[in-house]
């Protein structure tokens, strides 16, 4: 064997393991990176639509006949038992169905929704977290729930304040919102001098009773008299009626009218009282004399 053959064999023995080792080091590393990224993206793509459908199914699966406060609270309790993520998505979805369940004026529902937020986790721990909006998505979701309460005229209490403080800390963005509501809403609750809300809140009033309250709002003359007239029904379920508000001045003006003068009714106007739409119209002679105010009902 020549010196050239021995030299070539030594080079071959040294170079082959080194190249094979590099191949072993490179191939698994590349395969691992590709497989992990594909697996994570596949899991996310599978998880997102299923979670959204699952949240909607909490409320859509309930028949319309059984949609009430108990079934809504049961859906919230079922979500809280598993303690998953996605609190913001669940609360936003629940707010879409709150009016379908007819519980948008119930304080306990808003307490249950705000209680979904985890306690202590989102409280600022240092100065920088207090300066900037800590957990902005969660706080904006909390403010959205409080705004829904404000729009529906639901006044918060001390328990609502404590729930928000335990979730986001004291004097945070969402906490300031509930503090302002606690301060201003009791002051403005009875600020309407034309309507005493205690006459309509929490009471099941008939349409004629609502008509009387509405006429008192519109006719502020102390001498105004209210009267209710029932007409002959045209069917078994038809009970026509209309209510009239008439002041002493209007009565005297009507007595002074000539028999040939026609009293025309204006177009129908809308009045919302306790969330219920009422219709009323005004009778006049077409001149300077205003006449009767009618509120035919709902």
TrEMBL record:
GO terms for biological process: cell surface receptor protein serine/threonine kinase signaling pathway; innate immune response. Residues 57-227 form the ECSIT N-terminal domain. This is ECSIT N-terminal domain-containing protein. One of its GO terms (cellular component) is mitochondrion. Signal peptide: none annotated. It comes from Ancylostoma ceylanicum. The gene is Acey_s0345.g3096. The lineage of its organism: Eukaryota, Metazoa, Ecdysozoa, Nematoda, Chromadorea.
């Amino acid at each position: 064997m020549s010196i050239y053959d021995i030299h070539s064999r030594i080079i071959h023995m040294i170079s082959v393991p080194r190249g094979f080792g590099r191949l072993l080091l490179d191939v698994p590393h590349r395969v691992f990176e590709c497989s992990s990224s594909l697996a994570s993206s596949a899991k996310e793509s599978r998880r997102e639509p299923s979670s959204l459908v699952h949240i909607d199914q909490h409320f859509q699966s309930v028949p319309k006949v059984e949609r009430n406060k108990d079934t809504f609270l049961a859906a919230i309790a079922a979500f809280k038992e598993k303690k998953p993520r996605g609190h913001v998505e669940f609360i936003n979805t629940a707010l879409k169905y709150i009016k379908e369940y007819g519980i948008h004026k119930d304080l306990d529902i808003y307490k249950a929704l705000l209680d979904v937020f985890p306690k202590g986790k989102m409280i600022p721990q240092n100065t920088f977290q207090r300066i900037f909006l800590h957990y902005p998505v969660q706080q904006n979701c909390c403010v959205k729930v409080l705004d829904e309460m404000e729009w529906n005229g639901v006044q918060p209490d001390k328990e609502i304040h404590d729930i928000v403080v335990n979730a986001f800390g004291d004097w945070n963005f969402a906490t300031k919102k509930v503090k302002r509501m606690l301060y201003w809403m009791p002051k403005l609750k009875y600020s309407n001098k034309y309507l005493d809300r205690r006459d309509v809140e929490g009471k099941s009033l008939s349409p004629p009773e609502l008509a009387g309250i509405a006429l008192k709002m519109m006719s502020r003359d102390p001498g105004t008299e209210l009267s209710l007239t029932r007409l002959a029904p045209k069917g078994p379920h038809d009970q026509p009626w209309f209510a009239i508000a008439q002041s002493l001045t209007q009565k005297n003006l009507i007595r002074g009218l000539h028999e040939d003068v026609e009293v025309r009714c204006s177009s129908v106007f809308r009045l919302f009282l306790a969330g219920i739409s009422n219709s009323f119209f005004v009778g006049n002679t077409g001149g300077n004399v205003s006449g009767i105010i009618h509120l035919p009902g709902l």
